[in-house]
Amino acid sequence: MAQAKPFVLRWGIISTGHIAAAFTKDLLIDPKTRDVHDVVHKVAAVGSRSVEKAHEFIERNAGGDKSIKAFGSYEEVYKDQDVDAIYIGTPHTYHYLNALDAINSGKHVLCEKPVTCNSAELRSLIAAAKEKGVFFMEALWTRFQPLVLEVKRIAEEGSLGLPVLLHADLSGNFDINNIPLTHRILDPALGGGALLDIGPYPLFWAILALFENPANNSTAPTNISSAMLNTPLTSVDSSTVFNLTFSGSKLAAQASLSCSITLNPLNPGVIMRFERGTIIISAPIYCPKEFKVQYLGKSGKIEKEERRVFEYVGDGLHFEADEVARCVRDGRKESTLWGHEKSLLEMSIFDEVRRQGGYVFPPGVEKVRG
Ligand SMILES: NC(=O)C1=CN([C@@H]2O[C@H](COP(=O)(O)OP(=O)(O)OC[C@H]3O[C@@H](n4cnc5c(N)ncnc54)[C@H](OP(=O)(O)O)[C@@H]3O)[C@@H](O)[C@H]2O)C=CC1
Ligand SMILES: O=C1OC[C@@H](O)[C@H](O)[C@H]1O
User: Fold this and answer.
1) Which residues have C-beta within 8 Å of that of residue 189, sequence separation ≥ 6?
2) Which of 138, 195, 198 for mutating ligand 2's site (highest number of atoms within 8 Å of CB)?
3) pLDDT tens digits for the chain (370 residues)?
C-alpha cells in the first residue's frame, strides 16, 4: 500500500541567536534519520531585528537556501502567509510579547524555555491561544527525546515501585566575571540568573518522574522550599536550590533540585530513587544520551543493572518540532506530553522560588503580573 505523504509544517524563525541556529539546523535534518516518516519541516522565513543578520543566518545555518525569506523584523514573519508555525528564540523576557504577537496573527507557536518570566504572563498567553484557536507550547525539548520516553516507561512499569527521592542538578560555567553585564545570563532585564535559564531542566525531571507519576494524580507539590545565592555583579541568582514535596495524593516523594551558572555540569545529573531501584541519568540532563537502571534486592544490594544508550543525528531539538507538526496536523491545541498545565506548574514554582529568594525583575519587565 502506498504511504500517505508526510505532513509539511512551514516554520518562521524568530531571532538569529544561538538556540535559533541549533533549532533551524535540526529542522533541516531529514526526519527519516530518526525513523520519522509522517511529518517534515520547511523553514519558510527568518526574522531578525536586522535583515542582514537574517540573511547571514540563512547562509550559515540553511546553506543560503533562496526559498527562505529573510525579514528585518519579527512582525513580517508573523504576517507571512507561507508560515504556519512560529519558533521563538529570543531572551526570556521577550517571550511573552513575541508569542502574543504571533498568536494574535493566528500562528501556532513553539516558544523557548522558560516560556514566560512569570505565571501570570503564561496564563495570558494560554487564554490568547485558546481564543485564536492556535497551538501553543513551551519548547521543553527534553520531554520529546526517545531516551526520556523510555525512562518514563521504565519508571512507571512497576518493577521499581514508586519514586521516593529525586536529585537533579544542571550547572554550566558561564565565566560570569569575564562576560559583559549585559549578557542575557547576567542582565536582570533579560531574566538573567540560573533559575530561569537552566532551572527548567532539573525541574523538568521532577515533573516527569514525580508530578506525572500516576500515583500523584496530577497533584501540585504540597511544599516548595528554596534559597538563592545572588551574584554581586548584577544581583541575579548565580546558584539556586529548590526542594519540592509531593504528598497530596497517593505519592509521597521529594525532589532536591539545584542549578548554578558558575559550576561545570554535574555527572550524573539526575538520580531517581524508587522503592526497589534507581535510575541514573548521565549529563547533559537536557539531552542525555545514556542512563542506567539498578534493580535492588531487599537489603538494598544491586541485583541487576542495565545501561541504555541512545544515538540520533542532530542535536535533539527536532523531536519537539515533530510533536508540534503532529499536533498542528491533527488540530490539537496543546501537546499531551508537555501541555499548558506543566508549563503553568513550572512557572508557578519559579514564581514561588523567586519570591522566597527575593528575585524581583526590574520595573516594566513583567508585562502581566498576578
Ligand atoms: N532549548 C535549549 O537548549 C536552549 C534554550 N535557550 C533559550 O533560548 C532563548 C535565547 O537564548 P540564546 O539563543 O542563548 O540567546 P542569544 O543571545 O544567542 O540569542 C537571542 C536572540 O534574540 C534576539 N533578541 C531580541 N531582543 C534582544 C535583546 N534585547 N537582547 C539580545 N537579543 C535579543 C537576537 O536576535 P536578532 O538580533 O536576530 O533579533 C538574539 O540573537 C532563552 O530564552 C534561553 O532560555 C537557550 C539555549 C539553549
Ligand atoms: O536551555 C539551555 O540549555 C543549555 C544551556 O547551556 C543554556 O544556557 C540553556 O539556555
Assistant:
1) 93, 361, 362, 365
2) 198
3) 667 899 999 999 999 999 999 999 999 999 999 999 999 999 999 999 999 999 999 999 999 999 999 999 999 999 999 999 999 999 999 999 999 999 999 999 999 999 999 999 999 999 999 999 999 999 999 999 999 999 999 999 999 999 999 999 999 999 999 999 999 999 999 999 999 999 999 999 999 999 999 999 999 999 999 999 999 999 999 999 999 999 999 999 999 999 999 999 999 999 999 999 999 999 999 999 999 999 999 999 999 999 999 999 999 999 999 999 999 999 999 999 999 999 999 999 999 999 999 999 999 999 999 8
Q: Which of 15, 18, 19 to mutate to test the pocket of ligand 2 (most atoms within 8 A of CB)?
A: 19
pTM for the structure as a whole: 0.98
Atom of ligand 2 nearest to the CA of 200: 1
Range 7-140+318-338: architecture per CATH: 3-Layer(aba) Sandwich (3.40)
- Does ipTM exceed 0.90? yes
Q: Nearest residue CA, atom 25 of ligand 1?
A: 90
Q: How far is the CA of 279 from the centre of ligand 1 (A)?
A: 33
Structural fold of domain 146-309+345-357: Dihydrodipicolinate Reductase; domain 2 (3.30.360)
How remote is the CA of residue 263 from the centroid of ligand 2, in Å? 14
What is the atom index within ligand 2 of the atom nearest the CA of 284?
Answer: 4
Could you give the angle at which helices 18-27 and 318-329 cross, rounded to 10 degrees? 60
Q: Cβ(323) to ligand 1 under 6 A?
A: no
Location of C-alpha cell 531578525: 48
Q: DSSP labels for 271-312? A: EEEETTEEEEEPSPTTS--EEEEEEE-TTS-EEEEEEEE---
Q: Locate the domains of the chain by residue range.
A: 7-140+318-338, 146-309+345-357
Ligand 1 atom closest to Cα of residue 287: 3
| Residue 226 near residue 356 (C-beta atoms within 8 A) | yes
Test site for ligand 1: of 13, 19, 75, 285, most ligand atoms within 8 A of the Cβ? 19
